[in-house]
Amino acid sequence: MTPITEVAGRKVTLSNLDKVLHPATGFTKGELLHYYATSAPALLPHLRDRPVSFLRYPDGPDGQVFFTKNVPPGTPDWVATTQVPRSEGPARMVMVQDLPSLMWAANQVTEFHTPQWRAQAPDLADRLVLDLDPGAPATIVECCRVAVWLRDRLAADGLTAYAKTSGSKGLHLLAALEPTPSADVSAYAKALAVEAQADLPGLVIHRMTRSLRPTKVFVDFSQNAARKTTAAPYTLRAREAPTVSTPVTWDEVESCADPAELVFTAGDIAPRLERHGDLLEPLLDTGLAGSLP
To answer: N or C of the chain: less Cβ packing under 10 Å?
Structure first.
């Protein structure tokens, strides 16, 4: 029998709790659901009011991995949805606004990805994101060097950068913005990436061309486009181990000398939240948002 759990007054169906989803550690679906339930106070504010794309991996990272953007069939009527503009016409997407919605979505076994804008103002970004992706043999260690350069460059323009691991190989930098057209943010982010390459030519590449990326850190500015999404803070990733996109301190970034120092899994998050709180909480404070120069 599939268990049904009551979450904050809503009935949520949970299934296959013993199924192993992250084979490197034997991490099960039950453990995944527990992780999302306990990290919800930190995760939910970063999802709220944003249409969510689900990168689903119901059979683990070695099975089928696929994006779900439209409202899935069978979505409970109490899960919030919103209409979003698309080139082919408007569509509806899920918004994860509360704990019951989070647990329903987590039962689909998914990474959570969001755009840089909120549902009430599509195409007006309230944050900037730079995705630092290392080309082997470069690692997150080289990403940290680039992140410090970008942090200081953003600060020169009056923007405060915060960092999180991608949960995969690299780093994400984020800065809170006053609502700004996504096209303008994309142009600014591209200019930063070009400038970083000019100043750090042996380390940075701003073009996606695969042949150019070995040994370099690709500064991906494209996720600022209105149609693009980025892995949300605290989401689990579809990897062999249950790695998490984890906020990190600048001290951790500046001192990183080994990639293992910035690998965090589900079990690391509760102690980090107890020690640091949500390091990305300032992104949620509109009073701290900056404007593009």
So the answer is: N
